[in-house]
UniProtKB/TrEMBL annotation, chains A, B:
UniProt entry keywords in alphabetical sequence: FAD, Flavoprotein, Oxidoreductase
Listed name of the protein: Phenol 2-monooxygenase
UniProt keyword Repeat present: no
Pfam families (alphabetical): FAD_binding_3, Phe_hydrox_dim
Family note: Belongs to the PheA/TfdB FAD monooxygenase family.
All residue ranges annotated as the Phenol hydroxylase-like C-terminal dimerisation domain in the record: 428-610
Keyword Plastid: no
Sequence ranges assigned to domain FAD-binding in this UniProt record: 10-386
Domain of life assignment: Eukaryota
GO molecular function, one term: FAD binding
Gene3D superfamilies per UniProt: 3.40.30.20, D-Amino Acid Oxidase, subunit A, domain 2, FAD/NAD(P)-binding domain
Regions annotated as coiled coil: none
Length: 611, 611
């Protein structure tokens, strides 16, 4: 039969790979109204059959990632379906030859976390959050498809014009029926390679991975355990004289157990090769049982198992010409024990989505996209350096009479807790750049510029309903202008507020300059007064600071005093004079300014926006 | 064409009427595995076309009703879709001839409410919660169908045998196509008439309504207002010298306004007749505008409007032979201003569901069903008496120089707040009966027997996750046995716990006597220790008190000290010696007992259960 002509099509963004990074990207772009296509090499059938694979990948959703998912409206279902890890337990060698508990602490050491726990849920269920959200917008993953060639135009004019399609990608349909085209050509404005640790996109672009293999070899089993171990539903770190284990409770009654393998018979540590014939889940359970003693642990069946010796590597660059990007495992690989893999991946593309949208809408110059590598590569490097320290501590022998240089419980605990800001994702801190301007930090001293907005409950002026501020900062690609109006019962301050409002609507001000005729497409203005709910009428504020009755908040407790209050204090803002805070579309603080420096906002937006 | 033979069928429960009371009933019975059929006279098409009608009915979901919906897994969506009323504002005549605000308070004065606010949402959306839940079980409303005859067997043997079908109901299909049967006959074990204020079931049974019409005539409009009134998003009670108004904010930007009509031209107060030709929404807005002065209020369109002069009546009985029941508006009518209608209705059938299930399963004697009227008729009478006081106060002239006997702000506010337990539904208190045994109240002095279980957060022993206790008491028709185990670090107490456990599993104990071979089908045992999370291993408790790792709770704060702790104190239970608390399937406390009186539980269950 004659093969049809090769089909060619245009797309704004082609996402290659439908794991968590790729799905976050496609869903976010679609929500932003960008024309996006996402492909994956796995067929739906394979996906269905490979439940074990899906069950096995990735570990937990960390507190910051839950916040991010919430900003896309996806956290509610995650929290309903997943297991929450609140408590961590530590076991060390006891006098009697077995192990004993040396402490229980909060799993997450990040006091500002809105969700102070990690959620464990199999990767298929997490991907389903995105797939269902995308389906509601009429978008699905094209599969099974693999890219076979990728060419990027060398023409600088084409590369700098966001309306052009400089990336030409050839795709092969793996399940093409007879008479159907096996290949097609896609012309994309941008390509995102979210195609995993063995990324075809990365290799095709010739991007090197910097870093090395580790010496530590671990086995993993997913089981429904039968055990008398009292911390089986906690994240438990077991250091015994018979090896180390880590317990990660999962959804339902499932538990994941990581077992360190030190037996040279099974594993050749010099070149990291593992003889899979010599080892199996039964063997891993044998090793685990030794560490658990005097507690017993067994299972009727194995849900999934594997053995790994992972590299700790970061890609040397994250993009080529700001036209093709790599994200997720394609640009960083590390051990899964810290449970960061899926989190780092989703946060990579969360960082990229709004930037792509701004460039594609013609609002920003293409150079805005340089901040993706700047922000996310630095983070990936910190992740690897954290992972090295943590893995070494975890794999070290416990301190004992025979091992005076071993790792003590105190050492491990201190490291565990001091890493909290990192493992929770809460401490992620983007460096100064066009979109992170730290000039006026002192005016909101605790809203760290470059970090995500601290969660806090404020009470809505119009109806006394308490709201978590983060819920009013959805990932809708808009910049949020938080007008901390100060004390609106103070006449002088009301004069300042009215003056500020006049400035806001002046044609020379950033609000009109960059917001255009409909500033609400780019800006969402929220006003937060320090006065109390019996004193404030939202109707007293200037119109630009209350574009809808829901846009005025108070730093006051709710009617039952269950939440709210002291937000100005928590954020480090003057409760009389107030301040302006710019929140980026991804929820990170971009800039702070006192009322008097409202002009500086024009410079901030001018540094990456077109007027 | 020949008309087919009349179709006859059997059903466990026939529910007539698919408003909130009927839907709550059918959904709950279906969840309990009962064969239920629900019919309604409105066609789907009518439902669709009569958006105005749906929008207009019913006012708000009160705190206790939200708790009940949560116990069926339906509250999350309600909270997402509805408007929350947190704040109430009061306006009274000012010196300048208009009105001024005299105060803002919490809308709900019920400090133990889990959800301290009412939710406003149109009735169609509330019905959709049930319809979607039923659809997931394969059940839908048969419509448009009306019952045309109802006969109940006079045979006592048949009436007392729950396996028989003593009710014969003839149904007429209103939209039957040619050649299809227009009538059918249903033989039901039980019939629930939830067919509204003009209930056909009630009239057919010849049940009288006791009570009277009021003198007060009110108009209602649903609008999206354009106004400078600063409390338009609060529940606002306006007493002006130009009439009274009540503002109820609704979902989106909608607001409902109640306007008292005193103009004798429009309304003949002697016989309560209203000339609808003389009045319309514009006129109602005119009246409202007078009360609102000096604030302005207008609208572009009317979503819905009506005028009413409601009766305050209660049915003389709620059932005939415990085989046919009436529920909801069919047995009580009252003014809508207190926002009780839909709440009373749904709570009627919530009370009935588990009782019907127990009788139909052969677990309980049919006499259990007598407690439905006992509990719900008393409540309905209290509701009417509350409504009378509240309506009179609300309709009274405000106190002023010319009206020294008028209602002062303080009087109104005091009444508003003292009614809080009632309007919130939190204070509902069922009288002693077979299922409300108050003998040992002192052992849990604040868990009032006959009231719903106080919400409180406990921390799960196995994993440190905080849980609202109410969420562990779902409406799954099981009795919950709360074993407040006391201080499990105390050796003497552990001996008492172990002794109690031995007693539990003894064949003469209530647990085996009434629970049979699989006690978990009737009982859910939750154990709550007063010891702290670093001290308790859930594995130390006797097996019957931890049938699953999730069944052991601690009276301790969560890992971040954000919730939990002091539960024993709140409930008035001895933190060393503990107590046993029986929670009915509908969430109301049925009995309390000290460990030593575990035998009394046998008497409690024996009074309404078969062994």
């Amino acid at each position: 039969m004659p093969v049809p002509l090769v089909k060619e099509s245009d797309v704004d963004v082609l996402v290659i790979g439908a794991g968590p990074a790729g799905l976050m990207c496609a869903n976010g772009l679609a929500k932003a109204g960008i024309i996006v296509r996402i492909i994956d090499q796995r067929s739906s059938k394979t996906l269905h059959l490979s439940h074990e694979v899906m069950a096995g990948q990735a570990d937990g959703i960390q507190p910051r990632t839950i916040e991010v998912l919430q900003s896309y409206g996806l956290a509610e279902r995650l929290l309903r379906e997943g297991n929450q890890m609140h408590m961590a337990a530590f076991y060390n060698p006891s006098q009697n030859g077995g192990i004993e508990r040396t402490g229980r602490v909060a799993d997450i050491k990040a006091t500002t976390a809105r969700y102070p726990f990690a959620v464990t849920l199999h990767q298929g269920a997490i991907e389903a959050l995105f797939l269902d959200s995308m389906a509601s917008m009429g978008i699905s993953v094209d599969r099974p498809i693999v890219p076979t060639s990728l060419q990027l135009s060398a023409d600088k004019t084409e590369l700098y014009d966001p309306n052009r399609h400089p990336a030409k990608v050839t795709l092969m349909h793996l399940n093409a029926k007879e008479g159907q085209a096996e290949t097609e050509i896609v012309h994309a404005k941008f390509v995102v390679g979210a195609d995993g640790a063995h990324s075809w996109v990365r290799k095709t672009l010739g991007i090197a991975m910097d870093g090395e293999q580790t010496d530590f070899v671990w086995g993993v089993v997913d089981i429904v355990p039968d055990t008398d171990f009292p911390d089986i539903r906690n994240k438990s770190a077991i250091h015994s004289n018979n090896g180390s284990c880590m317990v990660i409770p999962r959804e339902g009654d499932k538990v994941r157990i990581y077992v360190q393998l030190t037996d040279k018979e099974d594993v050749d540590l010099r070149d990291g090769r593992i003889d899979k014939a010599k080892i199996g889940p039964e063997k891993l359970m044998q090793v685990a049982r030794k560490s658990f003693y005097p507690y017993s642990i067994s299972t009727k069946a194995f849900d999934w198992w594997t053995i790994y010796n992972i590299g700790q590597r970061v890609a040397s660059k994250f993009s080529v010409d700001e036209r093709v990007f790599i994200a997720g495992d394609a640009c960083h690989t590390h051990s899964p024990k810290a449970g960061q893999g899926m989190n780092a991946s989703m946060n990579d593309t969360h960082n990229l989505i709004w930037k792509l949208a701004y460039v594609l809408r013609g609002w920003s110059d293409i150079s805005l996209l340089k901040t993706y590598e700047l922000e996310r590569r630095k983070y990936a490097q910190e992740l690897i350096s954290f992972d090295k320290k943590f893995s070494a501590l975890f794999s070290g022998k416990p301190r004992s009479e025979n091992h005076e240089k071993g790792v003590s419980h105190e050492e491990f605990l201190e490291a565990f807790q001091s890493f909290g800001g990192f493992t929770s994702g809460i401490g992620v801190h983007y460096a100064p750049s066009a979109i992170v301007n730290t000039n006026h930090q002192s005016h909101a001293s605790n809203l760290v510029i470059g970090q995500r907005v601290l969660p806090h409950v404020f009470t809505r002026a119009a109806d006394g309903r308490p709201y978590e501020l983060q819920d009013l900062l959805p990932a809708d690609t808009r910049f949020k202008i938080l007008v901390f109006a100060g004390d609106t019962t103070n006449k002088d301050q009301m004069q300042r507020i009215n003056a500020l409002a006049e400035g806001f609507v002046h044609p020379n001000n950033f609000y009109a300059q960059f917001g255009g005729e409909e500033p609400s497409t780019m800006f969402d203005v929220l006003t937060i007064c320090s006065a109390k709910k019996d004193q404030v009428n939202y109707t007293d504020l200037p119109a630009v600071f209350r574009t809808h009755w829901s846009k005025v908040l108070l730093d006051d407790k709710d009617m039952f005093e269950r939440a709210g209050g002291q937000g100005y204090e928590s954020y480090g803002i003057d409760p009389v004079g107030g301040a302006l805070v710019i929140v980026r579309p991804d929820g990170y603080v971009g800039m702070v300014a006192p009322f008097e420096c409202v002009g500086d906002l024009g410079q901030y937006f001018g540094s990456f926006m077109k007027t």
